[in-house]
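Go through this pair.

…
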Amino acid sequence: MGEIHMIPLKINNYNHMKFTTNKISRNVLRLILISGCIFIIVFIDTVYAQENAQWGERYTRNMISSETGLPDSFNLDTGENIKWSVSIGSHNYATPIVAGGKVFIGANNADERDAQFEGDRGTLLCLNELDGSLCWQLVVPRIEGDRHNDWPMIGICSPPTVEGDRVYVLTNRSEVLCLDINGQTDGNDGPFQGEGWFMARAGEFTSEVTLKDADIIWSYDLRLQLGISPHDSPHASILIDGDFLYLNTCNGVDYRHLETSSVNAPSLIVLDKKTGRLVAKDNEHFGPHIFHSSWSSPAMAEVNGHKQVFFAGPDGILYGFEAVSQSASRNKIHTLKKVWQFNCDPNAPKENIHEYLRNRKESPSNFLGMPVFYKNRIYVTVGGDIWWGKKEAWLKCIDTTKSGDITNSGEIWSTDLEEHSASTPAISNGLVYVTDCGKNLQCIDAENGDTYWKHQLKMDMWSSALVADKKVFVGSRGSDFWILDEGKKLNILFSTKLDSPINSSPFAQNGVLYISTMNRLYAIKKSE
């Protein structure tokens, strides 16, 4: 294994971090270790495999999969069609991602897989696809101080994005990391060499780096370098386009839910995937209009011969931006150029928005699911905040071929959902499948918004349905999991109760269906 440089003591405490000039000096050490090194990186070109694994379909974010041969039933008691299952601690909200013979999923440290790391921490687990055994783990200490910046016991919520031998993920500390898919087993590949320091809590000596630990290639700290203030827990699924990483920053309100302390921080950024340098950011001044946080991740597609980035902003407005050219200079920070915007709830309050906190009848709207591109349209769920806003939500269908403010001209149709929705739509064969907090899974016509059927699960859903192999897979916070036929007629194939609530979306890869509950990850495959 390559040389590992240990730093004797982690000395900095970043309570209530704000990006102000008087705080830069006391963060010099961290800047040198995490960020400064990226300016002297020399990469050897690598031929990457075509595999690209992320949450939702590549670019479009459509919650579909081309996988076939998936099971239409399973039995936890008898083991029928259960390939393996493993504990992932507790309080899981992350969707598993499978690539390169490995399964990646965010978790907490309830299982304390390494005796070095006791107590509450965030982790990213890398498991063997064959049997679920641990290959390596990324261990991330909690943010010190205000628990609203990094909620206790919640695992890393962000699903990673994998390309070739690189894994990109946003941690519970709001750090964007590039990791080696093989962990430390093929050496510490740097330029980042401070993994032992990274895993230690403030005031602790550095940890011993072993073959079971992650190998960090580079890190970009959103709090330190952009001044963002996360709320509860970051959730971002990174989108890769060529050399660039697009992601939402998860900037949010303060612990009182009364204002955004990082009012000038961006909500959508672009990083260079090879170095971690900031390439571009929005200039929409979202800060004063954030009701809760920026939790919706971007999508991308070509419209009218030009590549666009679609972003559901924390202000309840859907945006189309020009994608950054691959030839753009890396020596300056670009501003994302807006092509169009669509206000999904024009009648909602726009001023003094935090006065509507806890108002279940009138409030601003926001997004939790991702926008999905399908046939020059964007499909997105939007409505009152699940925890603090009005009980009103919709599935919107928007024309992406227009420009400017298209609030009055861009809507093709809108369909009511029940209470709230965190769903990313799954669109297959002209049908849209969405979940909501009224316990409903709905099948809706993609062309005109008509509802074909509605099926009620045991409890509300904070996750999305997956359509694959002509089936619809979905679970709820009532621990129930369902498999239905895809199509205009409701036909239930199977349902069962799992060990604990389901807060994440199913994932399919190599003929295996992956389901994560609060406590366990299941790999389900048809018996030979």
User: Anything to note?
Assistant: The chain has one domain: 21-524. Residues 1-51 have pLDDT under 50 and may be disordered.
